[in-house]
Design brief:
By secondary structure, the protein is mainly α. The chain is elongated and about 60 Å long. It has helices spanning 9-16, 20-32, 57-65, 87-106, 110-119, 127-135, 167-174; strands at 36-39, 45-48. It is built from seven helices and two strands; from the N terminus they run H-H-E-E-H-H-H-H-H. It has a two-stranded antiparallel ribbon with strand order 1-2. The relative contact order is 0.19. Helix 1 packs across helix 7 (167-174) and helix 3 crosses helix 4.
């Protein structure tokens, strides 16, 4: 994977419209999770730590927001130790909902979001489908800053990535250079 020049926090903040202190918190969380790397000093900034095909939305959301769960209900009771009738059944259902959310977010990569942003809503989705685009060089190096993955990048204004990720996250990740 070829190295590209890091993108400064100031540049990302200007392009995304996010306040720099807020953006720095997000980038530090992403760095701690191994999603991005930073370079200090003149010409410093952030780059992706791995190819975008290897970074899932589940990893990103978990890094920024913590564990992906549906509610904060705790684990279901086991071995019939339920203190409230019916509560354990609901806890198990919410646990399953959280697992489905994690699996769904993990089925998409950052590369998928680039493809979707460039190709609209009918672009490939799950990570195994975007591999073909990657192998054909459509996601290869180069500067993706000219076409950020936000709703503004679509002629119809709908934004393929809109609704998949929080808008602030979409703006943040599209400002980070590939490494």
């Amino acid at each position: 994977m070829a190295d590209t020049a890091p993108t400064s926090v100031k540049d990302i903040a200007e392009r995304t419209g996010l306040p720099q202190p807020y953006l720095e918190q997000i980038l530090l969380a992403l760095k701690g999770a191994g999603v991005v790397r930073s370079k200090r000093g003149v010409g410093g900034g952030y780059v992706l730590a791995r190819p975008p095909e290897e970074i899932t939305l589940g990893q990103i959301v978990s890094a920024v927001d913590g564990p992906i769960v549906a509610g904060d209900f705790g684990a279901p009771h086991e071995n019939g130790a339920c203190e409230h009738e019916g509560q354990c059944v609901l806890l198990a259902v919410w646990s399953e909902v959280g697992e489905h959310m994690r699996e769904h977010l993990d089925s998409f990569t950052l590369a998928d979001m680039v493809v979707r942003a460039r190709g609209g809503a009918n672009a490939p989705g799950p990570k195994d489908q975007v591999l073909e685009a990657s192998q054909q060089g459509e996601l290869g190096g180069g500067d993706h800053r000219s076409q950020p993955a936000t709703s503004q990048s679509h002629a119809d204004g709908t934004g393929a990535a809109q609704g998949v990720l929080p808008a602030s996250f979409q703006r943040t990740m599209t400002g980070v250079s590939r490494s």
